[in-house]
Structure formats: C-alpha cells, structure tokens
Amino acid sequence: MDVILLAREVKADWVLIDEKLARRVAKGLGLKVKGTLGLLLIACRTGLVSKEEARATARELASGLLGFLIPRPLAAGFPLVPSPWGEG
Which of 13, 15, 39, 42 has the smallest count of CB within 10 Å of its CB? Predict the structure, then answer.
C-alpha cells in the first residue's frame, strides 16, 4: 500500500500495481492503475520492445514460473488486445 500513499503524495499520473486488492483500493481513491502487462504494452507501442519480445514476455509471465497470475488467453493475444486505459 506504500505505492498508493506515495502516488497520492506526489500526485502521480498513474500507479503500477498488479495485486487485485491494491488495484481496487487505488482505483477507489481515484488513481489510474496500470499493471505489468500495461507497462509492457506501453513499451511495445513506443518501440522500446518489439511485438515479438512483448509476446514472448507475456507468455513467460503467463507460464507462472515468475510468480505472476496472468491468464493464458490474455497473454496469447498480447499485444493485440486494446489498451486497458483507452490509448491508441
């Protein structure tokens, strides 16, 4: 929850959180929330990583080996899914 307090203190544009409860709390406080896949999507759209690299990373995250709980169907379509925050 420290990230939420810090985001409010510095008036951050958005906050990076993956945990479901913390995301709900942050949204309830009016913060814009992005997760790991959202950050990966930004990196892909801005050319920091290629679509192939983004897809491979999403698949690796969905494998569960890194401790993430990303649904496989979401990872399979990545980065072709629409932006969760309405950009592009």
Answer: 13
